[in-house]
Specification:
This protein has about 100 residues and is mainly beta. The chain is about 5% helix and about 45% strand. It has one helix and six strands. It has a six-stranded antiparallel barrel.
C-alpha cells in the first residue's frame, strides 16, 4: 500500500515489531519499534536519546542475534520518531563518483 506520497510501497505494522539500531562501529545501541517499512526505508519510534542517530550510517538489527540487518542512514527526526533510508549498492555512489560530481571551485 502506498501512502504519504512515497515512491515505494510501505507496509504498516499491525503489532509492535521490536528492532535495534546499532552504530556501524558497535559503540552504541538503541531499542526501537518498527512502525512501517518498504524496500527503501522505514519509520521507527526510538527509545532513549536520539543524539546517536546523527551518525552518518548505522545498522537496523531485525533479529535478536543480529543476523538479519539493514545498513541505514537517517533521513528525518520528529520527536521520538525517525525515518531511515536503507543503503545498498544501488543507492550509493562510489566515493570517486561523488568527488567527480562536486562543483569545481
Amino acid at each position: 500500500m502506498k501512502f504519504d506520497g512515497r515512491k515505494a510501497s510501505r507496509v504498516k505494522m499491525d503489532h509492535k515489531q521490536a528492532v535495534n539500531l546499532m552504530g556501524s562501529d558497535g559503540t552504541w545501541r538503541r531499542s526501537c519499534v518498527l512502525l512501517d517499512v518498504s524496500q527503501t526505508g522505514a519509520k521507527i519510534e526510538v527509545e532513549g536519546t536520539l543524539d546517536v542517530l546523527q551518525a552518518k550510517e548505522f545498522f537496523m538489527l531485525l533479529s535478536s542475534t543480529g543476523l538479519a540487518y539493514r545498513r541505514c542512514e537517517l533521513v528525518w527526526i520528529d520527536g521520538t520518531m525517525a525515518g531511515v533510508h536503507f543503503i545498498n549498492r544501488d543507492s550509493r555512489k562510489p566515493a570517486s563518483a561523488k568527488a567527480d560530481a562536486a562543483p569545481a571551485k
